[in-house]
Amino acid sequence: MPSVMLSAVLEEEPDLYEAFPPHVDPSGITILTDSPPGKKAPLKTFEELQPILQQGRKRELKLLIRENSWPINSPIRASLWPALCRQHQHGKSMLDGFYWDMVTQVFGTVELPDKPIMLPPFVEATHCLGYHLTRKGRAVADRVVSVLGYACPDITYSPSLYPITAALLHFMPEEECYHCMASLVASKEKMFITQTKLLNEVTWKTVMQIAKKHASAAQHLSRLSGAIGPERIYADWQWWILAALPFPHLVRVLDCFFHEGIKVFYRVALAILILFHKHSTNQNSEWYAEATKNGVDHAVDKFCRNMPASPTKLLRTAFSIRALSSQYISRVFIKTEMTLKSKQVITGSRLVRSRSSDNLPTSQSQVNIQMMSHTLTIRERMSEETCKQMGSHSPGPRALSMGVYPIQAIKSQILDQSELFTLWSWLPVRITMYQPVLLYTTEEHGCSLTTFYVRVEHHEPTLLMIKTCNNEVFGAYCSTRWFERNQKDERGNRQAYFGTGETFLFSLHPARAKYPWVGCAKNDSKEEGDTRTAHANSLFMAADNTMITIGGGEGQAIWMDENIRFGKTDRCSTFNNPPLCPSGDFEIRVLEVYGFSGA
Q1: Would you state the pLDDT for residue 295?
Q2: What backbone torsions phi and psi does residue 299 show, to the nearest 5 degrees?
């Protein structure tokens, strides 16, 4: 046992079992005090902090939270943590009962199930840390995370989400915990929880970069890492904090984290490295021997589990690191993210790997969309007249009209004039009268879904044209603006699919064909069938931060990843199209998106 724990004052609190919710087993929780009573000013109460929080005095609150070492059984966290999380919520606050409505919607009942709950794919089974939750508490944590996954389909990889949920549940009831996690996940001003594999990798590489500012600690770690290299060590950085630190240390770190964001974790990770360096520099030290015998990764983990510094000293070390401002961390983070994204584009191994079906449309967003395919409704339907106008799968060019004139100004890297004339003949007549405007092209604006949305999302309609590295040419006429991906239904849930029946697909090379909405081909008899089939036939457009999809039901007609680099095409019920390229998987050479000025 580390020296600080031997010298710490163990307080036999008679109300220990009353300090935590019933789903927590406090028998294994050690209550530490960092200094003898009377040495410091009395700890602040929530009533004293609340006005500071309400008045937005963030810096003052930050310093107070850092300085006040509340013991782990302090009642303040039941009020402080929810208040800290609420300040980060984006949009309107949730109505009372919203969480339980979601629970009923997902599980059919508010009763905890007897069988284990299947967790979302973004959770890492090896890091579902329950800390001191009881068996019932673990079931509650499972349910909160599952509902969060249902409500936030954009989350594709978030290993830290479960441990943070479990930690919150030590100090509040289930519904309050969900509201806290929803606020942290949706936060725009600060980052708390990474939600994709890319950003998860960016965080550990950011830690590795900023550690270089403290050369002695970073170089010491590199020397000790030997053949495995420092990357493997830094890849586990968040588990030094969430999995290895004693629970009282973790709770004090979370006090600051819920106010300041992920930069607290960065600082604490560096503090751990600094302390580990201090205790393992001497070749006769216990930790140097541990690192050389069992590897530095195991040594750092064991060092954290037996942390020789008190929670107060750990935080003091973290916050005394100089030249580590939020602005500096943000610059390193953004630069690292851009570097990784560019490597994804140019690295040969990445290209080969991404061509496999295992790595293309595997985002949780797609899974959720497919699950919802049979229950969605569409806001608008095409008029019967427009349906008749759109014709069959491969109509010939209609008679040239005055509307063809605007295409003379198009300088496409994908289509020649003959193909443009064919494509223009398939557009709704009224649209051909407008001047086409190039909104986005990968040749000029780079391969980024974020840039795509910035340049395209408010235009309606849009025309997407794709040329693959195998010279296949296809695309889609999208009737609705892409901003609709952010709209919510009457229950406050984001719409998975949107758009109207005027949307259609097309192929121009090697074959020329148009694939209109299957609803246009319905005859007047309108035979009644399975309602789910009707819904699957009306899934036009879908998008989130990780992908865009056109066409759904039994497959996606066009799917592209967040880097606008790789895609997949399948037959789909909405357009009854074949795959638009023979292999099904494709790599994008050029993507062009056109809007229509004045439309």
Answers
A1: 85
A2: -65, -45
Return the DSSP state at 240: I
Greatest CA separation found in the chain? 92
Q: Give the angle subtended at the CA of 409 by the CAs of 407 and 414, to the nearest 5°.
A: 70
Over the stretch 254-305, which tens digit does the pLDDT of each residue have?
Answer: 999 999 999 999 999 999 999 999 998 888 889 888 888 888 889 999 999 9
> Is 299:290 a contact under the CB 8 Å cutoff?
yes
For the record, the structure tokens of 464 come out as 């997407």
Query: Within 13 Å and on the Cβ side, how many CA atoms surround 481?
Result: 15
Distance CA 108, CA 139 (A): 16
Q: Please name which of 227, 221, 204 lies closest in space to residue 303, comparing C-alpha atoms.
A: 221
- C-alpha to C-alpha distances, 252 to 32, 247, 248, 262, 268, nearest whole angstrom: 11, 9, 6, 14, 11
CA 330 to centroid of chain Cα atoms: 18
For the ranges 28-37, 118-127, 173-182, the maximum mean pLDDT occurs at 173-182
What are the distances in angstroms from CA 308 to CA 33, 249, 290, 419? Answer: 14, 11, 15, 71
User: Is 80 exceeded by the pLDDT of residue 394?
Assistant: no
The continuous run of DSSP H or E covering 513 comes out as: strand 513-516
Question: What is the DSSP code (8-state) at residue 245?
Answer: S
Check if the beta carbon of residue 325 is closer than 8 Å to that of residue 262. Answer: no
Backbone angles phi, psi at 251, to 5 degrees: -65, -40
- On whether the CB atoms of residues 319 and 265 are closer than 8 A, the answer is no
Q: Are 564 and 448 in contact (CB under 8 A)?
A: yes
Residue 546 pLDDT level (bands cut at 50, 70, 90): confident
Q: How far apart are CA 586 and CA 29, in angstroms?
A: 54
Q: Is the peptide bond prior to 173 cis by the omega test (within 30 degrees of 0)? A: no
Closest C-alpha to 456, from 596, 333, 571, 336: 596
For residue 215, give both structure tokens.
């050369």
What one-character-per-residue DSSP string does 14-55 give? TTGGGSS-TTB-GGGPPP--SS-TTSSPPPPPHHHHHHHHHT
DSSP codes, 56-87? T-HHHHHHHHHH----TT-TTHHHHHHHHHHT
pTM reported for the whole predicted model: 0.59
Tally the residues of the chain: 599
CA distances from 385 to 154, 381, 399, 500, 531 (A): 37, 12, 19, 14, 24
In angstroms, rounded to a whole number, what is the distance separating the alpha carbons of residues 74 and 71? 5
| DSSP class per residue in 577-589 | PPPSSTTSEEEEE
CA dist 384 and 365 (Å) reads: 33
SS3 106: helix
Residues whose CB is less than 8 angstroms from the CB of residue 504 and which lie 6 or more positions away in sequence, other chains included: 390, 426, 476, 477, 514, 515, 516, 517, 575
Terminal C-alpha separation, the chain: 72
